[in-house]
């Protein structure tokens, strides 16, 4: 098992102060509020344009009402589709404010809502153009697809979006490999690119005035540039600049390995403890598929370390990497960092390989002011046992190992804690729990149980920072 050299941190003098990064947490809160205002303003703006263009008046007739409602759902769906692209474009301002888990949750909500609106748009418009006769709608849709400018690409784009949405439903997602799901999900970009342009050229709500034209073309261009800059250009530039290579692959036990990497000017990469990057190892077939792995040690500007558990697919190949293998990276991502911290004392709760980012955070937090308690639940061999013991011994980090598999569907703790309930156990380990920042990382179902316990303990939602291991 690999071990890092740890130096004792100087003992703090006086009561610990709230970390300076609390200012970042407040800034991020304002960004989230501003993003919400911007979204609702855009939705209200296009609704206002629809209403001023006779949309409300047209609702008085059956055929015109169907067409008018179709125009409105199309406008709202168009805004949400482009917002969906912006949410996952890895824009730094949104990434820092929401974190990847938060953005992914919003992406799913906005995505399903926009898809529903898009289907309603197609159905209502077609029904209205078919003179309100439902039986004539299929034939009308066929004619529109082949005769209206831009409709054939729109039909292809809609098919792409249907594929993405169907494979994003949980029951379908669990049947797919991550690599397959990720590849299929990229069709969302193609779907948006094909589905929306027909409105830019022919839709009266898009071309009725210079203001409307500028708004829609500006929003479309912003989404396109965001993808080109932050999903393509920036990762390529960082990979070329930092020239990351694998230096060692070290077994950690319980089917996990640590990959040590070195490169140039890694301090400029901006990676922080608790974050993850998307990694592409240039070791043969499958290098185009990126995998998100968290840093398992605090970055020092000279090297990086990730720890990966063999869960099949790409993760199994990590153990076979050879020193010297070149690496492409995208990131860093995630808000499970000191940036989110608002209180002097911290509680870290991780399960299994979910301890990976928390191990890096513990290294950073235990070197500063405030008390740090780390609760690690594991079923087999605990990861980083020696390193965490060294942290506890040299830096005063309180380590709470919880052995054993989960003791039941309603508990997130292992059998090793005995008959005590989850809330009582947590309050025993951290009596001042409600006044701490809490960082949680693990499988989605497990983290949900932890969050339920934290809510029962009275921990404010703004002090709970979560990262799921899932997709």
From TrEMBL:
The record's listing under Gene3D superfamilies reads: Nucleotide-binding domain of ferredoxin-NADP reductase (FNR) module, Translation factors
Specify where the region named Disordered lies, as residue ranges: 1-21
Keyword Transport found: no
Stated name of the protein: Ferredoxin reductase family protein
Q: How does it sit in the membrane?
A: Multi-pass membrane protein
- Classification via SUPFAM superfamilies: Ferredoxin reductase-like, C-terminal NADP-linked domain (SSF52343), Riboflavin synthase domain-like (SSF63380)
What transmembrane ranges does the database entry give? 33-52, 72-89, 110-130, 150-169, 181-202, 214-234
Q: Which InterPro entries match?
A: FAD-bd_FR_type (IPR017927), Fe3_Rdtase_TM_dom (IPR013130), FNR_nucleotide-bd (IPR039261), MRET (IPR050415), OxRdtase_FAD/NAD-bd (IPR001433), Riboflavin_synthase-like_b-brl (IPR017938)
Tell me which stretches of the chain form a coiled coil: none
Residue ranges of domain FAD-binding FR-type in the record: 239-339
**Lineage summary:** Bacteria, Bacillati, Actinomycetota, Actinomycetes, Pseudonocardiales
Q: What is its main location?
A: membrane
* Database matches in Pfam families: Ferric_reduct, NAD_binding_1
Q: Which UniProt keywords apply?
A: 2Fe-2S, FAD, Flavoprotein, Iron, Iron-sulfur, Membrane, Metal-binding, Oxidoreductase, Transmembrane, Transmembrane helix
């Amino acid at each position: 098992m690999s071990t890092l050299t740890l130096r004792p941190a100087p003992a703090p003098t006086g009561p610990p102060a709230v970390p300076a990064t609390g200012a970042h947490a407040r800034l991020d809160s304002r960004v989230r509020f501003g993003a919400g205002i911007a979204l609702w303003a855009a939705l209200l703006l296009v609704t206002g344009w629809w209403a001023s263009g006779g949309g409300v008046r047209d609702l008085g007739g059956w055929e015109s009402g169907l067409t008018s409602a179709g125009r409105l759902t199309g406008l709202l769906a168009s805004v949400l589709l482009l917002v969906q692209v912006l949410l996952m474009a890895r824009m730094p301002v949104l990434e820092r404010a929401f974190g990847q888990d938060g953005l992914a949750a919003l992406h799913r909500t906005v995505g399903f809502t926009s898809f529903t609106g898009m289907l309603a748009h197609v159905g209502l418009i077609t029904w209205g153009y078919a003179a309100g006769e439902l039986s004539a709608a299929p034939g009308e849709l066929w004619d529109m697809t082949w005769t209206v400018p831009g409709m054939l690409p729109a039909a292809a784009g809609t098919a792409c979006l249907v594929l993405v949405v169907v494979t994003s439903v949980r029951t379908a997602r669990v049947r797919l490999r991550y690599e397959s799901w990720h590849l299929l999900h990229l069709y969302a970009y193609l779907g948006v690119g094909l589905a929306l342009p027909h409105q830019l050229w022919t839709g009266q709500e898009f071309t009725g005035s210079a203001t409307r034209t500028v708004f829609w073309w500006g929003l479309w261009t912003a989404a396109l540039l965001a993808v080109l800059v932050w999903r393509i250009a920036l990762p390529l530039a960082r990979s070329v600049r930092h020239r990351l290579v694998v230096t060692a692959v070290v077994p950690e036990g319980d089917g996990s390995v640590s990959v040590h990497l070195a490169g140039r000017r890694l301090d400029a990469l901006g990676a922080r403890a608790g974050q993850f990057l998307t990694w592409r190892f240039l070791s043969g077939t499958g290098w185009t598929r990126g995998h998100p792995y968290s840093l398992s040690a605090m970055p020092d500007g000279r090297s990086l370390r990730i720890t990966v558990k063999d869960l099949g697919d790409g993760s199994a190949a990590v153990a076979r990497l050879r020193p010297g293998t070149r690496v492409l990276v995208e990131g860093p991502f995630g808000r499970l960092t000191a940036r989110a911290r608002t209180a002097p004392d911290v509680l870290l709760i991780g399960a299994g390989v979910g301890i990976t980012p928390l191990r890096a955070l513990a290294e950073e937090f235990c070197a500063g002011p405030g008390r740090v308690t780390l609760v690690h639940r594991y079923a087999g061999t605990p990861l980083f046992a020696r390193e965490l013991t060294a942290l506890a011994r040299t830096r005063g980090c309180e380590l709470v190992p919880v052995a054993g598999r989960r003791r039941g569907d309603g508990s997130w703790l292992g059998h090793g804690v005995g008959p005590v309930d989850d809330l009582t156990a947590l309050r025993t380990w951290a009596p001042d729990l409600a006044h701490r920042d809490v960082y949680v990382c693990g499988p989605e179902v497990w983290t949900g149980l932890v969050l339920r316990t934290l809510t029962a303990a009275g921990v404010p939602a703004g002090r709970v920072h979560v990262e799921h291991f899932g997709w």
